Amino acid sequence: MDSLLLKNFDEIENDFIKRLRQHPVFVNIMSINDELFGKVLMQRRFLSIYFTPMYDISIDILESENAKIIARKIVREEYPGEDGNRLSHRESLFSDIVSLGYNKDAILSTRKTSSTRDVLGDMFDLIYLSRSFNKGDLGILSILRFLFEVLVSEEYFMYKKRIEHMGLCCSETSAPNSIRSKFYGPHILYDSKTSKSILDIGPNQISHSDQLTKLLNELIVDEEALSIVCSLMEKSIKIKCKFYSQFTQYI
After folding, report:
1. Domains and CATH numbers, the chain
2. Which of 6, 131, 139, 151 is the most exposed place for a label (fewest CB within 10 A)?
């Protein structure tokens, strides 16, 4: 493990995350009207719906059995409870949006915009692009970790203040007169990277990002590997910004 390479990785990743945080939708998250925020959530829901098939394809691409096991566990967490007596993550997401005051019929009648369809296509294309590098699982692990875990946690963290303002509590302890989030709050926690540096990941850090980071650490062994990871992170951040840019004209 090259500590200098990983330190460079940290700096580059933080710059990409900052780019997402500076998107106009997030800068203005507290001032956009409820109708527009609802549109953001309902379109974002489609990306969540496709999370599982994208992970399934990624598992087929992965070569390391250890990496496959971790990815399978992440997918299985999407459907907790063996007897069907607990909500799936997608159901929890639907429940949260309804709890924020949006009409069930409005959610179910919403269709993907052309921009959302394009973003979904871009996400699938990026997954397939990961196979073009002769670096084992480096490409696909970079995408799974950054696009599907780290950035997701960042998105939901930036929703948090607005969501809590609307009465949905994202903390582990609910505030008076609020409803506890079943989806957004938990995902902020278990998708996030829990260390500021990729160098500081320990054995007891078990968020999805952390588990994938441990695998990725072993693969960033030279400048070429770092360059591949950074190029995929840049493509990932462009995809995320493209999704949110469809709403910029309404701000």
Report:
1. 3-78+87-250 (1.20.910.10)
2. 131
